[in-house]
Amino acid sequence: MSASERPVPLIYVLNGPNLNLLGKREPEIYGYQTLADIEASCVARAGNLGLEIAFHQSNHEGALVDLIQGAREDGAGIIINPAAYTHTSVAILDALLTFSGPIIELHLSNVHRREAFRGHSYVSKAATGVICGLGAQGYLLSLDAMAAQINAAA
């Protein structure tokens, strides 16, 4: 199969609790861009990289687990900003461990410069790589890294 005949890789971009409040909640930490702004930037970058994205946000742990399990069927990679579930969710870790493609853990803020409990991540145990502290730009960098991971595996 030639490169032009290969299906476009689908990347799941998953966002955890309270990220629906971006632009309104603590903008001094998380920035002024909304999640819709970030999604639009991601769609554009993904298109330039030859990727397709499925962009989701949920405040519910089980919904995120369902999305991760769904990615096993058609996803080439997962970019996940698990937000507070980073520090608490063994269920999300267990779901991610069933996924065979690359996983990038993403955080808008530098979690290592914040409260001590934020320095621990269950998700990192399943992640191929971690990007944190670069604000909304981290999403675009995650897509760049994901494209490189997928192209290296092709």
What key phrases describe this protein's structure?
154 residues, alpha/beta, 5 helices, globular, 5 strands, Rossmann fold, 5-stranded parallel beta sheet, single chain
Q: Name the CATH class.
A: Alpha Beta
Low-pLDDT ranges: none
Q: What's the total count of β strands?
A: 5
State the helicity in percent bands. Answer: 25-40%
**Any guess at the CATH architecture?**
3-Layer(aba) Sandwich
Q: What is the radius of gyration?
A: 15 Å
Strand order of the largest sheet: 2-1-3-4-5
* Mean pLDDT metric: 91
How would you describe this structure to a colleague?
It is globular, with a radius of gyration of 15 Å. Strand 3 (77-81), helix 4 and strand 4 (103-107) form a beta-alpha-beta unit. Helix 2 (35-49) packs parallel to helix 5 and helix 3 (61-74) runs parallel beside helix 4. 38% of the residues lie in helices and 17% in strands. With 154 residues, the chain is an alpha/beta fold. It has helices at residues 27-30, 35-49, 61-74, 90-97, 137-153, and strands at residues 10-15, 52-57, 77-81, 103-107, 129-132.
Record the SSE blueprint.
Layout: E1 10-15, H1 27-30, H2 35-49, E2 52-57, H3 61-74, E3 77-81, H4 90-97, E4 103-107, E5 129-132, H5 137-153
Helix pairs in contact: 2-5, 3-4
